[in-house]
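S., here's the first fold you wanted:
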Amino acid sequence: MRILSRYLVKQHIAPFVFSLAAMTGFMFMNQVARRLPELLGKGLPWTVIVEFLLLMLPFVFAMTISMSVLVAVLHTFGRLTDDSEITAFRASGVSIGQLIRPVLLAASLVAMFAFFFGDQVLPRTNHRLRMLMVDIARQKPTFSLKEHVVNEVQRGKVFLRAASIDQGTYLMRDVTIYRITDQNTTQIVYADSGRMAFDLNQEDLQLILFDGSAHEFDRQDPGLFQRSAYDRYEIRLAGIGREFVRREEDTYYSDRERGICALEQVARESRRDEELAERRAAAAERNGIRGLLGLDTVEPDTVVRTPRRSLYCGILEWLKPDPLEAQEPLRRITARQDSMMADPARVRYAPARPPRQVHVSGMRPRPRMNEARVHRDRARSMKERAERYLVELHKKYAIPAACVVFVLVGVPAALRFRGGGLGMVIGVGLVIFGIYYVCLIVGETLADKRYVSAFVSMWAPNILFSIIGVTALWRYGRQSLAGRGRKVETPA
């Protein structure tokens, strides 16, 4: 069995490496073909372009690992079936479970590598890639502007639409600009023509418009509207430069830019805030009734039990070295403070006094009528936030586990559709992986809409495919060797 196990694992190495390199390269070149023309037109340094493309590689690599396992299993067991090696193994008394045992062990090792890669490497590269994309979008936006399309010039603030844009002279015709100046005011500027120019510092963009009108209105009060006509109108946008400027650090991290422990912490805090908001909402409802009865209000219980972290995060926290504590700066001690420290009996502590409640005309203050509703809304938002992060958390576990699941599904598929060669491997592999990927997308959508839990949405494809694979392997193992082999004619 040791010789057979080494033989089976060795037969999987070459197809796995080839499929991993081929699919990663194909998907990576597809991303390069989509992004490269846009990057070259911005006049970026070649080092920035290479860094951008390399930061896209880990995301592609994380997607192709599990699919490469499936392709390797289909190719290897399909070839062993065509060469009648599976028939020889079973005739020697080797069961189908003994055949897939070493393959499952090798797939488990690949799944562990994919798990650590998706937890430690992928979030960091996603964060750096997003920062780099934002920095690239800020530089020289004239090339990326498209005609007859609403283009975002300044993130979330200024949008531009033009019928024609000359990339050489920056001249525009039939221009419409949408500006969100503050939280309530929106300005729409129409112009017959205009041009773009950079200041001498190469960091500010000027939009010079001719022959048009500016409309300004308040989104909260539709009755407030102002219209003005102009011959020349200038708009200056700061922070949009011709030269590439890299930001030092970005403190914002999305769910795809966090590791397992960070996702787990955010989910725990959101669950705690949700429970606390529910208690406050229930207390506000009770206090509303007590206020009508003339009774004193009661405070809700704010002691919330925080769920424990997982064993994996506990081990990482134990392995992480303790950070160095910064030494506090020396402070000047006054003579009075020195005398108090010398004689602690002189220090007096005043007990904390509760805040006074002012009653008008003998009436007790009633709680706000919408206080319970505010807490309910916060509890709902915290629950949605927790579910969103839990979906990403379970995804980091479920996708690496698919390496083992694809072995359970790929072996009976290769035994069933034998004799198809490379076409069978590609066709069956695309069908299985396509169904699995669609199930993941549908599950994530249902979890975001809170139709199903995060665990069910991410683990349902693995559970479903595992049941199908184990059932097919069980049925194949119960079949007799004579029924699976060829018919042999004996001489008369």
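And the second, which I think is the more interesting of the pair:
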Amino acid sequence: MTDISAHCGLRERKKARTRAAIREHALRLFRAQGYAATTVEQIAAAAEVSPSTFFRYYPTKEDVVLRDDFDDRMLEAFQRQPPSLSPVAALRAGIREALASLTQAEWAEFQEMTALGMAIPEVRARMMDELTRTINTVADALARRLGRSPDDLAVRVYAGAVFGALMAVMGPETYSEGRIDPAVFDRADQALAMLESGLPL
């Protein structure tokens, strides 16, 4: 059993390294020659993988910008929060913990990808599909925490309300010259606190 677990762990680490390498080389090429001029084939060649391998990790070129490890870290931290916390309080704690776990290099990459996502029209268009996927992922995490079905209407509405609150304070004006205004995370936390308190006006 231990050998099987070790093998699975090694395989997951290898996948994570490949995913990170593809993203790293994609961002380097985007900086050097621009997003539009960079092809999937160029990214795959730089990362020393085949185009088919690229698509196993990222369904589209836009997904290289939109998909990172932050959501996974945040959801893992969310699940670790004590049961005594409400779902929103646990989510706020999970976000804070995930942000605190970022290294300086990871923070710089996070900022760069977020700025690209706001600046490139085709990436912004893809964001809507990604948002739906992320809401589904958060609904699954909420359902596990609450012992309910991910298809429960209340769970899905709750997950949607969370992202509605976040989107209200994280518009294009919060990004400038490839940088995120750090205050946006304080505003996001305040938005979730308002949601937790019933959105008083």
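Why I say that: Residues 106 and 136 are 25 Å apart (CA to CA). The domain at 1-58 is CATH 1.10.10.60 (Arc Repressor Mutant, subunit A).

Talk tomorrow,
H.
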